[in-house]
Amino acid sequence: MKIYDNPGPEQWEALTARNAIQADPVGDRVAAIIDRVRTEGDAALYDFSRTIDGVELTALQVSETEIDAACSRVAPAIQEAVRTARENIARFHEAQRMRPVEVETMPGVRCRQRAVPIERVGLYVPGGSAPLFSTVLMLAVPASIAGCRHVVLCTPPDKSGCVNDVILFAARLCGVTHVYKVGGAQAIAAMAYGTESIPKADKIFGPGNRYVTEAKQQVSRTQVSIDMPAGPSEVLVMADETADPEFSAADLLSQAEHGGDSQAILVASSLSFAERVEACVERQMKALSRESIVEKALEHSRIVVLDSREAMTAFANKYAAEHLIVSMENPWEIVDNITAAGSIFVGNYTPESAGDYASGTNHTLPTYGWARSCSGVNLDSFLKKITVQEITPDGLRGIGPVVETMAQAEGLSAHRNAVAVRLKTLNENER
Hints:
The chain is an alpha/beta fold. It has helices spanning 12-15, 27-40, 42-53, 64-73, 76-94, 133-146, 165-173, 184-193, 210-220, 245-256, 271-285, 291-298, 309-319, 331-335, 352-357, 393-410, 413-430; strands at residues 2-5, 101-106, 109-117, 120-124, 150-154, 178-180, 203-205, 225-226, 234-239, 263-268, 302-305, 321-327, 341-346, 383-391. It has a 6-stranded parallel sheet, sandwiched between helices. Strands 6-5-4-7-8 form a 5-stranded parallel sheet, with helices on both faces. α4 (64-73) packs across α7, α8 runs parallel beside α9 (210-220) and α10 crosses α11. It is globular and about 90 Å long.
């Protein structure tokens, strides 16, 4: 990891830049996949399973028998861990329920807002080199709490045509009964348009590679809504001399192992601390099972030394990290000034991996700088807000002239007339 010692603000644009998602365009390839699924349905999905996943499937949906067998193979310790994580995630997301809003904005004019669950949601769970069963919990738990009536889950099969056992265990634990052996852009297309086997969704959730991300963005333009834009995983660690360099190194590596396109940034308060972390990274990396992936990710990761807390905070806000770790003296002073981050981890004993799995917060977060304007997945992501208004005759007498004046000023005479005819009737009835 290259160290930049007190770079000036004019250099920050380059230092906060992400790794290019890929120089070679995938848009046309993804568009072709989507079009085939849209026009050919299941036949296209079976063909993509052969040509992309290298597996010949006899059915797209995972059967109850397969789920039973998969659950029986999950070790008791893993089952217990998943149950504990689910309880914590449920507890945090249950607390996010909002009360209905009801306000009388002026006499006789009553406005309400109520939350309604999205009817049909599609969940995408990556299943490549690291099947992310934790993502099942992060998506299916809030979907259940929100009250979404129809939930489908797509995840790629392995070379034998099977879905990861723990993914299926987590799905059953969360009440997801419709699981399909479909991955990649073709899974997003299937949930966006529907096929003979896979029902159409109203909103699609979940992380994925650049093909999945591109597919989500393409279908969101005309067909279905999505949780958020997303790119490769990332972390920014803010650390001063009160931090433990071993901990900081471990946090950087925990994100780097997600994929070769992931990015890990350390913002350190001193050059000496930065060098200690760099040495720990080199040593710890050699013991990791995904060392080659980590090594590739570190090629476009970096260490930035800034000698003031204000500069460190400003840099963190400019980067807008998916995961932000604050291992500094008086960390809450820093946290209170963070305005752009997906999720924040405070203090030396709050590893990012706790949020990835079991603390209760959601790990489906905005990346690639989208944290400047987007939130991570939460209970509201699975709800839509409907506003309701009711105006009494007296209320219309009060607000009607306001509406008439504004409509007339905008040149919308039909809008004005919708009020005028009512006021006329009210006036006539009073005679």
